[in-house]
Amino acid sequence: MSDAHNNxxxxxxxxxxxxxxxxxxxxxxxxxxxxxAKEKRAERxxxxxxxxxxxxTVLFLVAYFTLDIDDNWHVVAGFGASTMALGAxxxxxxxxxxxxxxxxxxxxxADHEISELRHPANSPEEDRVATLxxxxxxxxxxxxxxxxxxxxxxxxxxxxxxxPAVVLLRDLGPLPxxxxxxxxxxxxxxxxxxxxxxxxxxxxxxxxxxxxxDLVNCQPDALHNPERYELDPTEVEGxxxxxxxxxASLVLLRMNPEDIKPGKDKDGNSRENWxxxxxxxxxxxxTHVGCPISLNERTTHHLLCPCHQSTFDLADSGRVIFxxxxxxxxxxxxxxDAEGYLVATRDFDEPVGPSYWERDYYDRW
Amino acid sequence: MTVGDMSxxxxxxxxxxxxxxxxxxxxxAIANWADERLGLGTAMKKNxxxxxxxxxxxxxxxxxxxxxxxxLLTGVFLTLWFDPSMTEVQYNGSYDxxxxxxxxxxxxxxLDISFDVRGGLLMRQMHHWAAMIFIASMMIxxxxxxxxxxxxxxxxxxWVIGCLLLLLGTIExxxxxxxxxxxxxxxGVRAADGFMKASPVVGxxxxxxxxxxxxxxxxxxxxxxxxxxxxxxxxxxxLVAAHMLLLVYHKHTQWAGPGRTEENVxxxxxxxxxxxxxxxxxxxxxxxxxxxxxxxxxxxxxxFGPYDPSKVTAGSxxxxxxxxxDGLLRIIPAWETHIWGVTLSWNVMLPILVMPPxxxxxxxxxxxxxxWITGDKREHHLLQRPRxxxxxxxxxxxxxxxxxxxxxxxxxxxIAIKMHLSINxxxxxxxxxxxxGPVIAFLITKRWCIxxxxxxxxxxxxxxxxxxxxxSPEGGYAEKHxxxxxxxxxxxxxxxxxxxxxTVEEIESSGLAGRQVKLRRLRAKLAAVFxxxxxxxxxxxxxxxxxxxxxHELHELEAQxxxxxxxxxxxxx
Lengths: 365, 573
What we know:
The structure holds two protein chains of two kinds.
Chain A lengths: L2 H4 L24 H4 L1 H31 L14 H27 L6 E4 L7 H18 L5 H14 L1 H5 L26 E5 L16 E6 L17 H11 L1 E5 L24 E5 L11 E3 L4 E3 L6 E3 L5 E4 L11 E3 L5 E3 L21
Antiparallel strand pairs in A: 2-3, 2-11, 3-4, 4-5, 6-7, 7-8, 8-9, 10-11
Chain B lengths: L21 H17 L1 H8 L3 E2 L7 H20 L8 E3 L11 E3 H11 L4 H28 L8 H23 L4 H15 L5 H9 L8 H31 L13 E6 H26 L5 H4 L18 H9 L5 E3 L2 E3 L1 H29 L15 H20 L2 H8 L3 H40 L1 E8 L5 E6 L3 H8 L10 H7 L4 H17 L8 H23 L11
Antiparallel strand pairs in B: 1-4, 2-3, 5-6, 7-8
């Protein structure tokens, strides 16, 4: 910017003020400086603090070796006896050391303020000149300015050698492919469509089990019963199970069938046969950032995400009626199998969970 | 360097004569041994008695430093037992309610540290408390540095380092509280997965690379662990060292006062007083964190249980320092663009991917912006009272208001429950408040500062309010003002006159044109706003006249008082 103008303000700050600097006030002696009795007392106090610290340390050791933790963390006022005793004794022993040292410095160490001159942050002019000269000599002797071929090829090589650092990270993970678009709900067989089972107890559900207003958290049967769907058990164990759950978690809600306003599916067909006796099934994973949605307003068939309060209307194709979520909850088409249990007739017809760049959208109204 | 009269400082124990103390002799021998090998004599010559000025607000950064040390100590302890693995195991430890439950090794080892290692829960809770204190004290320290103008030349780079420390501390906190793999932290990681997926073009790739496949995968905890105990602490340590070295090189700023000028630094020497105070303070910070860790439970992961992507608890919130972006994430309208088969999630990008980096950029840029606007290129070592830089103070208060409202929005569900309000109405209110609040805060702060400047000016020119009321012969009442003590008057008047950057008129009369001039015009306009209505300190003549006038009034009042009650004063009144 305009350096010419800025120079008006550079340099030292003018110390001119309306009042002359009266200078540092005279030092006053503390009682401990002039009264040997007070000095003696302060000395005893400091040593006393250190002594208290030592006592606390001993108590810490006693607590460590005598108190059990087990799981009795609520023994004393809601805290584990061991944790509380260890924390209190160690905390006090540290604090007494600190208090003692500070008391010592305040009462007994010299309390004369001393004054030191400041120097500007920059180096003296002759140093600057010498450094610049050395720098220029070094650059000149390297010939980097005169040999553009060497300079440019070096810059090119240095630029390229950064690539391995990026490429080496490639194996951090596989490419997404179409993994985000499918869930294990699509793994049902023709004669054994994927049953909807209660999360945790893994029992299948009859349509008649639900009252109007009931909300049930569900999982695909395959997570508990892979053989029935001709899946390898390792596909649903441990981490794999967590991956499936993070996409397949489901909520069932039974409402008055007249309340349901069926929307359209991906191909523009009505969703009217996606429900069974007023029971609808929606993904439990919020379309905002992926929290499991859990709060049901029983009278309004609205479902609220506890993380950021996006609210979805399950009677209206999962429409977002409040909050930051940008798209409706995916709906799972429900049916019943030969034994009358609720099943998914096919997979979700769109990816579940948070939005991402390549995720397409279709209007369901 | 001047050393005062030490004649009366206690250096005996009261009964022994003051001979050369044993400690000094031993220290001398060690120093000699070290100097012959390391040549420390020259380096330490100035630094052992380096002067540090004293003020309570200079202690805030120290809290951050010492809590960082506590983090390193307790963190090393935790690594001895923590197993950063997502392999599923059955928990068989001492905590009854979770025995037999399947969980990751990370969660199981966290429970072991809490219930089967004596002092383990204490260390875990100390680590977490220290982390919160670390970040809180960095923030308050930053406010202190900004509001007192300590960031000005030559300390701008230390300000930048400080901002980076705050950023790294926050990331360190997030990776740290995610490690136990409990239900609450897993929910946070799940949200982080959503944040990454919202990035344009590369979102799902970033997510798959970070998680080693589909969320949650088996890689995120070990990867966070490597970042949390190696990568970030390494950078933090380097930056903290640089922060301290620059502090020593620049010498600490100080408040103006009698004998305290731009050219000197007045305070206690490093050895012994400052070393004792700082060292003692380390033990106090350490002790307070230990007491908190022992007496105040936090992050009870055993109550949350292991992470399960299908479960969540109501009132799920990140640690407080992540709360403000979370608040923005809650109040942003449902903005998503679907076009040409792709999705742009503004509802995630703006609050998470745009706002926090933008806030950091603004913070980093503040010293440079102010220097550019004011054209002030001088070195500053005396601190400014917030009132004496009204616009600067108002900018920070506006930023704080934005931060605070966003943060409060992060607890909109809690506010709704505790205050029996509608969450929808709180959200709508917050949507407007985060924009309007900072503007109101800016205006109020700026005027408030200027009023305080006027108050200071009044005290300087007319003296302080003595509390003595005097009735005039006409029956009017007036309060007697008395002149300030010399030191106090000097303290109030020892401040810069605001710089006078070029004005728009000056630029226009220069007859220049082009892009450079446009920029200069912009700068001149901003500078006019920046300094608008500021009260400058009085000149020597103004002060003299005012004091003369005040003395005259005082004499008159005294004469009236001397005349006694209900009697008229001098005839000319």
